[in-house]
Specification:
single chain; alpha/beta; UDP-N-acetylmuramoyl-L-alanine:D-glutamate ligase; 9-stranded mixed beta sheet; about 35% helix
Length: about 325
């Protein structure tokens, strides 16, 4: 199988990403002593770095895989929003779909890392739902993008920060069905049962068990499949891609499931792995891959970024190289 040729399909695709964006800020340093003020490490900062996070990190993953991302999101009207737009500009990602909301602040997550160990995270954010005016602005932009840009897939990247509302979901899903565009969801808790009619629903293990209020062992794939089928039937969802960290992932559809074990890797950081999985899955579905192949490829992609510290993206060349080795082995 020529994986280079297969993944070249990605370069022909446009993906609309709707959801909560943020700035991922990093303070990198070294730890040589404990504070005399409290039993906590003192981090001597060596480097500061800002990256695109949340839905914007998904957009960056889509771009690094060779496709064209179209990001639709909400920021505040503050210094962090200016920083966010500059980060988009530096990564050559359009800010056309970004809406400034005077009633909220731009989400910033600051991670303090010492000797490649994540020590603490500081969140600056508002999580109230967007108002009706901003909601209508988002919907109008989505309609314009879908009807004029001929998108090949739509991703809802939900972090419970208020950008995605029930009305945004319902309007977008109807529009996607009209234009025969697959819809994928990386859910959180507030909208868990609002994504009716989507193509692929991608919770992680914690989101799945908490959302359905069930107690399932991480390796009980049969039980997961039973609960998934019930959820899909009740919510008109076509398939579920359930990520299970060290247990890999499973894909459930048509009263059957396939489990894909995790790659044997040295995990440095799982931050952003879900963003990579859904980005890869969207491009696979847009390229006409089967659900099983979509799950397999996405599993490899998610594993690759777990070997790196911080929220990072998957590069198409990395993915091709992994599959070459996989074929050889």
């Amino acid at each position: 199988m020529n994986y280079t040729q297969i993944f070249e399909e990605f370069s022909k695709k446009k993906v609309l990403i709707i959801g909560d964006s943020m700035v991922d800020s990093y303070l990198w340093g070294k730890v040589d002593r404990i504070s005399p003020e409290a039993p906590i490490p003192v981090v001597s900062v060596i480097k500061k770095e800002n990256r695109l996070g949340g839905a914007a990190n998904v957009a960056k993953n889509i771009k690094s895989l060779g496709a064209i991302p179209i990001l639709c999101s909400v920021t505040g009207n503050d210094d962090a929003a200016n920083l966010f737009k500059n980060l988009l500009l530096s990564d050559n990602i359009s800010s056309e779909g970004i809406i400034a909301d005077e009633t909220r602040s731009t989400t910033v997550k600051t991670r303090v890392i010492g000797h490649n160990q994540h020590i603490v995270r500081i969140d600056e954010e508002n999580t109230h739902e967007i108002n009706s005016k901003i909601e209508d602005s988002i919907i109008n932009k989505i309609k314009t993008f879908v009807e004029n840009d001929k998108v090949d897939a739509i991703i809802f990247q939900d972090y419970d920060k208020g950008c995605i509302t029930k009305k945004v979901i319902e309007t977008t899903v109807l529009l996607a069905k009209k234009h025969n565009v697959p819809t994928l969801v990386d859910p959180k808790y507030k909208n868990f049962f609002n994504y009716k009619g989507v193509t692929l629903f991608k919770p992680n293990y914690k989101e799945f068990t908490a959302g359905l209020k069930v107690d399932i062992k991480k390796d009980d794939f049969e039980k997961m499949s039973i609960h998934s089928e019930k959820f899909m039937s009740e919510n008109n969802v076509e398939s579920i891609l359930l990520t299970l960290s060290e247990k890999g992932l499973i894909i459930i559809s048509d009263k059957s499931y396939h489990h894909f074990p995790a790659m044997e890797i040295d995990i440095a950081d799982v931050s952003g792995a879900g963003d990579t999985v859904i980005s890869c899955a969207a491009l696979c579905l847009a390229s006409g891959f089967s659900l099983a192949d979509t799950a397999m490829i996405s599993n490899f992609a998610g594993s690759i970024v777990c070997e790196k510290t911080g929220v990072v993206q998957i590069e198409k060349d990395e993915l091709i190289e992994v599959f070459k080795n996989f074929k050889t082995n």
